[in-house]
Amino acid sequence: MQSLKLIAPHLFFFACLFYVFDPTESQNIIYSYCDTGNNYTSGSVFEQNLNLTLTSLASNASLTGFSTTAIGQNPNTVYGLVLCRGDVSQQDCQACASTASIEIIKQCSNNNKEAAISYDNCLLRYSDRRFFSTVDSSPKLMLYNVNNVTEPVVFNRQLGNLLRNLSSNAASSTSKFSAGQTNFLDFQYINAMVQCTRDLAGNNCSNCLQDIIRYIPQCCNGKEGGQVLSLSCNLRFEIYSFFLLSSPPPPSLVQPNSTSQDEKKSTSKVIVFVAIPLAATMVVALIVCCCFFWRNGKKKRVDTDPDQEGSMATLDQWNSYGAIGSSAAG
């Protein structure tokens, strides 16, 4: 009984720690798209090819962060694509792709022949028609931060310049991804990233990004952050750092205090495996659990702290401006 009393604080600490570093937190669905115009029959050859396609995409996603496949013969050919966010680790890419390959069938449960599902870390898509190298820039979802910037004219000018530079970099790179930041006000930055699917040619990637940038005045004008997501490209901007890399790729200035997801995981492992004296453990447990309650309280508010981690796991801090032919799921 005495030994149980001694280890109880440790167990409490580890329970809180597991919640704080829960890896499933980034696996919230941003949107799912199910084309209701065409359906397949359960047990059909198309369904068999679809299952093989999803298995292939989930297996190959983490190799390069991008994979396409076509399985079967017409009229039962299934075309599939998976794209991981350009700054996620192989492990997170694999986890996201595996989850997406399962959830897309659940989300589109009416045997849809064309569907897509998007998470913060990846996008997975399949269809009965060949869509590779074809631009689809129609926004499936647009999101905005509820807070307004203090200097919208300056902000919009700086954001426009940053997105143009990032778009140019992404279009000319093999990764079709670019992230960076620029000055906004004293000690404040605009952070942004853009990405295209890697099957697009450079000019098609550039055109896709230009198309979705034009939607910013509709969804996010004067807002502290926003996202525009289409099947072929997407963008995001914030006044706080949300990059999963230890530092954003150029163009960038000195990045304010940021902690990458990998650093968090490393920290959690160190804390778990290093022996901590009982008194120190209880103090750390108290701090961690205070952070837990503080973080949950923040999620219930609509305001966004500039120092907050930029994960779409906090979708309840965002409002959906619109969804075209899709549904958002949280």
From TrEMBL:
Q: Which InterPro entries match?
A: CRR_secretory_protein (IPR050581), GNK2 (IPR002902), GNK2_sf (IPR038408)
Spell out where the chain crosses the membrane.
Answer: 270-294
Question: Does Cytoplasm show up as a keyword for this record?
Answer: no
Coiled coil location: none
> Among its keywords, does the record have Secreted?
yes
The residues covered by the Gnk2-homologous domain are 28-131, 137-242
> What is its subcellular localisation?
Secreted
Gene3D superfamilies referenced in this protein's UniProt entry, alphabetically: Gnk2 domain, C-X8-C-X2-C motif
Q: Which GO terms describe its cellular component?
A: extracellular region
Name assigned to this protein: Gnk2-homologous domain-containing protein
